[in-house]
Design a protein that fits this description.
Number of strands: 3
Distance between the termini: 76 Å
Largest sheet: 3 strands, antiparallel
Strand order of the largest sheet: 1-3-2
Strand content: 5-15%
Structural class: alpha+beta
Length: 82
């Protein structure tokens, strides 16, 4: 019997290696973080996540989440007055 191997085809546009990016689209950040897209947009709209700190607007107008900014936000202790 021939030593023929079958390769599994990967979907177009998908890479098997991991690339660590500092900025992610809302959709990509949602997948990685578990926050819904609506929750992310709400945090931005309410001003809970500040532009330039947790998110930026790319030259093409898309909102990108800054992973480093998010990590700082997530690990910060915010004193909330009652």
């Amino acid at each position: 019997m021939g030593g023929r191997r079958h390769r599994t085809r990967k979907p177009a546009g998908r890479r098997s290696d991991t690339v660590n990016l500092r900025h992610l689209t809302i959709l990509a950040f949602s997948v990685q973080s578990g926050y819904t897209e609506d929750a992310i947009r709400s945090k931005i709209k309410r001003g809970e996540w500040l532009e330039g700190a947790v998110w930026i607007k790319a030259p093409d107008g898309r909102i990108l989440i800054d992973i480093e900014g998010f990590e700082l936000w997530a690990t910060s202790r915010q004193d909330k007055a009652a």
